[in-house]
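Possible regression after last week's pipeline update?

I re-ran a chain I had predicted before the update to compare outputs. Posting the input and the new output here so someone can diff against the archived version. Not blocking, just want to make sure nothing changed silently.
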Amino acid sequence: MGSRVPGQSQASSAQSGESQKRADSAMTSQRAGVPHQSGRDSEQPAAESTQVLRRIKAPRAPQEGNPAADTGKAAAASQASGEPPAPAETTQVLRRVKAPRQAEPTQPSRPGKASPAAQAAAASGAAMAGASAAAAPKSPAGAAAAAGAATTRTTRTTSTPSTPRTSDEPPTPLADSGGPGGPGGGKGKKPKRPKRTGWRRLIPTWRMVLGTFVIGVLLVIGLFFLGYSLVKIPPANALATKQSNVYLYADGSQLARDGQINRENVTLAQISKDAQHAILAAEDRDFYTESAVDPKAMLRAGWNTALGKGKQSGSTITQQYVKNYYLAQEQTVTRKAKEFFISIKLDRTKSKDQILEGYLNTSYFGRNAYGIQAAAQAYYGRDAAALDPARAAYLAALVNAPSEYDVVAHPENKSAALARWNYVLDGMVKKGWLSQSERAGMKFPMPKEQTISTGLSGQRGYLVNAVKDYLSENNILTKDQLEIGGYRITTTIQKDKQDAFVKAVDDQLMSKLDKNNKVDKSVRAGGASVDPKTGKVVAMYGGIDYVKQYTNGATRGDFQVGSTFKPFVFTSAVQNGSTTQDGQTISPNTYYDGTNKRPVQGWSGGAYAPENEDSKSYGDITVRKATDLSVNSVYAQMAVDVGPSKVKQTAVDLGIPAETKDLQPYPSIALGTATASVLDMAEAYATLANHGKHGTYTMIEKITKDSTQEIKLPDAPVKQAVSREAADTTTSILQSVVQTGTATAAQAAGRPAAGKTGTAEEDTAAWFAGYTPDLATVVSVMGQDPVTAAHKPLYGALGLPRINGGGAPTQIWAQFTKDALKGKPVSDFDLQLQQGADVQAPGTQAPTDGATTPGGQDTGGGATTDGGQDNGGPTGTPTDGTTTGTPTDGGTTGGGTTTDGGTTTTDGGGTTTGGDTTGGTTGGGTTTGGGTPGGTTGGGTTTGGGTDVGTTDGGATAGQP
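New output (post-update):
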């Protein structure tokens, strides 16, 4: 092995000591923050470097007091065994920060940060120490000492200057001091983030927002996969095998049965391309390029629904098909969730063409037509393959609102249907499915009248659809629930009265129509009858046959009601205690100026001077007589005296819907410009018959589901809409209309009756609304083009110059009322009249000299008797033209006729009263005196005893009777 040279150990020790001095000097400089200069190195920029130091782990249990001896023993033992010692080695990375390019001695040093030169010196010293130890392997004690010194120096470079380290503490890893914020990096401890105070504490930090977003995304993804795995595609719903709904008369006998599904499935190839494109343009224009669901559209629809813009689904065609074919129609979150996942799955298993085909075969188009093939037949009598763009666009429009957009069933909604039709066509042009030139010349294709199975023929279809509308409008059952079926619905319709109504219309109208007369082809009729005490609809006439004429004449609301509205004006006057322009309380005997085209007084909305029927002038006339003759100028002025807004409110209180078209607070409201339905008018007149008590009409007695579950019906509260005096006083003047006015044909009912005739503008409709104490009934005869559904005047119908309210409508009413009440005891009206209603009111024209004739008849404004007849004639009955009255003067004024103490009328053509009349009536006026040979002049009809039974078929009518 050879002996060790003594000088070698000393040289090594000296060399090691020199290295240690240099390292200590570098460490001291680093701790003090003063750059350590070593020749030219201090002037050059120090490059960043990484040095790897190996540290030999010290013995585990050194002897106390003499660690060097222990170390030497361990080295000697290792040499004796011939094996080198195997100390544990660790590798530490020391990162040096780049030093400044030039030292700045004048700059104060910062504690805790060593200069790059000092770091380099320390690293160099450590390296030299390691090299010295390696150069003396034969001196175990020296190696151990060098290793210990290197370890000590290395540890010093990582210790905090302010915290001295004892020899017993473990060395700090060099890597810990290499970070920018550690002591080795020289930057000191990182300052703490200031606390958030005030309103800033309420604002989430970006970490909170980001964390919430990430969690939300993960949650949504998790819920999606959970729902996708749980929701399965179910079998088809029960639409194909659903139950029918059974409708019963009030006595329990069957009225009708519906629910027979009108569907004929066809392939996509059997549907014209125009029809396919129209459906896509209406419902989902990007169907072939979009996914099965559209989350943006769903969110938009939900937002619009929340804002009150109506319920919107935001569904794609795929979702709608899933709802129609697999699910029910209820609007619930659960159903929408299922629809969402099933649509996604279905889109993965079926092609777009298959889904579109299924959608076209399951969509509902109205008229009990399911699927586009059935719809094409129901509306146009052709197959789906033959649909052109115009017809296809209309059918596509129907999908959005089948009931509302049927322009034949609901002519009043034609404007909305046209708007939707144009929307579809414009969408086809936008998508390139239809040329602009073809679109420009397109006209709306009017659908035909509905032809359906005989199960709803006759009146059954009208009644069933009216019941469905009633259930839907009163939130009893939705149309979707009715489509499911299984309901047993007992109506208020009484079979005997229903049959009597049909017979009366047939006898008095339909049987008299001439098939060769073009005008007769336009004749339509509608009627409704209500029990005043209960509000139940006991009979309804919708048309000649539901299969032939789909539109229900009883529920349609597109014809003016004419003078049947005038009683509401008088009712409002009594209800509100209104007075004339000169301060007189309005009563049956109040005088008004009945001059034709007389401008109304007291109206600030502009000039208004309505024309009387046939341009007749009546001069000063009582309200009772003005009602008999339906004088427009009188009632327009009365509406202003009462206040048009009050008149409208009274009509609504009686039962006319507030949203009725053209029910506006103007003087013209008195002339019946509103287009209320026959059923609405029957409800209002039933309120008058019930002494002012109003109960909303009802058509349902009872409903059960699956023959066991009874459906709760809403309460039908009854309220005093107007005072009894207002209602009963109106009844008294309407009795005069039947006795001496334009509705004398109603006397054929054989019962005390009250009512009013009416005619729409241009004679497109004639009305009679009347009632007995037991039944209120309204009848309307209307003119409608059988092809275009446009309103048509009734001139020449039934071979007459025109149809007035006192003609066919009143005759139908009389026959029906007589038959419907057959066997029921006759009862009279029990009236409580307005105070002073039977007292003569001071007027602009006072009665002439004379006394009231025997019998207490009204002689120009006096008290009336015998049911309120206003004829002023003697009670005797003339024989062979001989009069029982004695004329006082026999003279006339302005063409009028003076009578025995009666009223002198001016301007000619007026109504005369009293004994021996010499002039009768002129210009079609009504004669009310006795003893007039021949009885009529200009078409008037006179009966003996001075009682005028009115005129029919061209007799004396005024305004819109």
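Follow-up from reviewer: compared with the archived run. The chain has a mean pLDDT of 74. Marking as no regression found.
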